[in-house]
Design a protein that fits this description.
By secondary structure, the protein is of the alpha/beta class. Helix content is 38%, strand content 20%. It has one domain: Alpha/Beta hydrolase fold, catalytic domain (Rossmann fold, 3-Layer(aba) Sandwich). The radius of gyration is 18 Å and the shape is globular.
Amino acid sequence: MNFKTKLVLWFSSLRKPIDPDGETNITALRKKSESSARLGAMMFDKKHPVAHIADHQAGDLPLRVYRQTDNPNQRIIIFYHGGGFVLYGLDSHDNICRRLCVMNDCVVVSVDYRLAPENTFPAAHEDAFTAIEWVKKNADSFKGNANDLVLMGDSAGGNLAACMAHRCCEAQIPLSAQVLIYPWIDGKLNNPSIDRNGSGYLLEKATMFWFQQQYTPNPADRCLPEVSPCYATDFAHLAPAFILTAEFDPLLDDGAKYAEQLRAAGVPVRYTMYPQLIHGFFNIPAISPQGLQAFEDIRQFLKTV
């Protein structure tokens, strides 16, 4: 593990960006997490200039649309941010969306879905699908191609992207691809990597269970296929997938097992585990050449679908 990553872990041990045991006030916890996210981005990322950025509303759902050119029929990435269904929003993942827009020469639509505990399951998942419907209806207005959609998200956002890939399949909405960045897939939260990497690597086991309690307070909901896509019964017609994981991430096994599950069903899958990296590296990619490589790997993957 390189010096920059160790520095991030040292800093987080002094002032945990996500520490529900130390701060139970949701508003205060969000402010603390946003502050840490801004610091991380300032130190280990850069803000790419984008020609057109505009905020929109799909009913009550805020969206932010990024577009670099005026070319018609651009591919559209619908991006769902991470944060355990409790934290973050459009601003915390602004740098990510800018970078994706510039590197892939496409439209990016960032989704500010409702957060828990104020809004429990299925609120975020319903908002995620509302965003897809809005994008398909309004794609022409921002030079997008409604028939060239990519679903993408990190962590809890990876869960939303994976679940929406299933829902789009059921609704006969064609997708070009799904990109799942260290996704949260299994509501059982009992994969070995959760214990192996569950302490000292930014995202911790106790925090994961706390997040789950906020969004799915009813234990009976936690392994429904609508929120834990590994328990779906049909995978055969899902969009091609690129699943990214990190060596020291509690969610490593979630992504690795889901990749195997999709591959066994005949879905085209690319899977990459990034060595020496931690959960959240996508927001601070300059901590390691591997972090920046992940964005390039996504670019190369999207060229093939």
